[in-house]
Each structure stands twice: as C-alpha cells, then as structure tokens.
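QA checklist item 7 of 12: single-chain prediction sanity check.
[x] sequence parsed
[x] length recorded as 330
[x] structure emitted
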Amino acid sequence: MKEYLTLHTIALAAGIILDFIIGDPHSLPHPVRAIGSLISMLEGRLYKEKAGRKLQLFAGALLWMIVVTVTGAVTVFILFLSYRISSYLYAVIETILTFYMLAAGSLRDESMKVYKELEKGNIEGARYCLSMIVGRDTEKLGEAAVTRAAVETVAENTSDGVIAPLLYTAALGPAGGMVYKAVNTMDSMMGYRNDKYEYFGKFAARADDIANLIPSRISALFMIISSFFLGMFLSVYSGIRALKIWWRDRYGHKSPNSAQTESACAGALGIKLGGSSTYGGKTVDKPFIGDDIRAIAIEDIKRSIKIMFFTEALCTAAIFILIMLILISL
C-alpha cells in the first residue's frame, strides 16, 4: 500500500507538471480520441432513428456501459501488466495517463490562440480558433462575444477538464480518471437535447451530471479561494465578489454543474457571462451570470487562465497534503 501510494504521488505530480509544460500536442496519440472513436463506432451500430423512446434510452445506456467497461478494463490491464514488469514502468505509465487526462495546458494554449488573434484585431481568426474549443456557432460573434465564450470555456472546463479528472485520478487511480474521461466524452458527444440525442443521449448526460456533482462544487470552492489570493496582488480579482455571485448564480444553467465555476469566475472578474448562444443555427436562451461591473476585455481570457491554474495548484496541494498524512499514518 505504501509503495503504491508513493508511486501514485510521484506519477500524479509528474503528470501535472507535464501537462503544464507541454499541454496537449495534436501530433501525439491520445486515449480520449480512441474513446471517441469507440463511441462513434457503437453509436453507428446501436442508434436507430425510427426506434421508440424506450428502445433509444436502452441503446444509449448500453453504449454507456460498454464504453465505461472497456475503458476501465483496458486501463487496469495496462497498469497491471506494467506493474508486473517493473514498478518504475508502472510509475511512467501512470504519469503518461495522468498527463493525458488533464487539460489545463490545452485550455491555456487553445484559449490563448483566441486571445492572440483578438490582440491582432483578426476577428475571423479569433472566431476560427474559438470554434475549435466550443460547440456554439462562432461565425457571427463580435469581439466581446468571442472573448466571453473563451472565458466561459476556461471557467467551465476548470472543473470538467482539470479538477474533476485530478480528483478522480487521485482518489481512484488512473483507471478511475480514465473512466471519468469516458463519461465526460460521452456527454460531450451525445449529451444534447435535440431530435437525435433527446433519448439516445439522456443516460450519458445524466451520468455526467452525477459524475461532476461533487467535483464542480469543489472546483468552485477552490476558484473562490484562488480569487481571494489573487485579489491580494491584483485589484481586478475579488474573492468577495466571486463568493457572492457564485452563491447567487451557481444554478444559473439547466445543468446543475456548469454554472458553479462560471459564476465564481464571473464574480471574481466582475464581468457578465452567459446569455443566448446559437448551436447549429438554433438559438438557445441562457440566463446571464454575474454583474456588469465593467465591460469584458480580451485580457479577461488571460485572467481566467490564471484563476484556472491557481485553482489547480490549490487542489493539488490539498490532495498531496492528504496523501502525505495517509503515508505518515501507515
């Protein structure tokens, strides 16, 4: 147990550092892309357009169970095999898997592409870069709307892409982290309320809501604490506002989780997020989150990234302190 926890702690730290340094190079193979391919393949076999609601619900649940089982089993097999060969190889494999599961570096890199295009005054380039990280239509967005969408993406994915996989990996090992990524990926691909996925994707959407119920609130808590720390050095951040807006607007979306971190970020920066967005040519009305204490600016993309990394640092510190206490007690 002590050896495993030691290796686990080293791999966790190494994976976090790797993610921070190199992000997510598109040239590298990625297990999440493999999970996405599995989902697409099963969807092609299980989805029947003319099937009734109950059959579509069952097919969607079956797809979910297959993907989760395969993802968990393959990850456990790889880890078991590597540990049988060498504990050092196991630590390397866990480091790589942790690196793949965390998206802080990727969020920084992709959102900064949007920032750089806006800084150059290239709105078309900014829209294109934004389209790579959001599901909404970007063709007609102006500078403020592009900026708002980028900030919202960083804020929401601070939970889904950083803190949640970090917590699941820390608590349940790489297999737990990879299963979470599978659950999150299925929601990203199938969790839509449209003609195709209203019933076929319902199980995936609800499962993701449950999986993120606790992590989203932990993320918001650390984000608020981060805002207090950052506010000590930079007046643009406010922990008091973050706490106030989070408490008021944390259930501002239909999802029970997505507004948790968005509201904390909006409050910390004193800006308004949310509002109507267009998806596939169809406008979806969403409530606004936060207050217009000041107009949103492209620098808020950088500011939201700072909140994300500070939030990750605080969560990591808390995890490592807990692990060290467990190691000392053994």
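[x] summary fact logged: The chain has one domain: 2-329.
[ ] second reviewer sign-off
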